[in-house]
Design goal:
It is a single chain. The protein has 170 residues and is of the alpha+beta class. It has one domain. Helices cover 36% and strands 20% of the residues. Strand 1 and strand 2 form a beta hairpin. Helix 1 packs antiparallel against helix 3.
Length: 170
Amino acid sequence: MTQLNRASEQSSLQRILESAVVLSWNDLMASVNGSIQIEFRTSQTKSVDYLKLWASGAIRGSWSLICESSVASLNTPRRIDFSNGFHSGFLSQTLEFVLANQDRFPTPSDSFTSLIQIHSPTEQEVASATEYVKEAREMARNETAAAESDGRLSEATMQSPRHNVVPGQH
């Protein structure tokens, strides 16, 4: 069916986070010779407790915090806080979308901390990430439209940013 249903090795959450980083690579890395590490912890309720992105570039073994988000309170939307001069509008929008719609991105049921390391993406990885993010947003839009028409729109969905821009597709 869609790529969203074919991700066998990674959880859907891991795949959408990796795709967001791949599509934000040019915004984040001044040099293509580096890597980005995604660190996140999920709770037993499958929600993301915290999320941090780290960059490593010219100095091997040295990592700089790109951005982070942690649970502030249940009633406030999640914010992405950038650090150390890093910023990407697309990454911020995509991470906010993911965190506001966590139920759409399954994770293993156990509470765990996960690390994903991403190196300079290939053209094929960028194309795959573009399609994956596009499909995830389209599915969310369709589910939101169905919920609105049925009168069962959740509070979390109402707070979700409705950004549909994927780099290179304006």
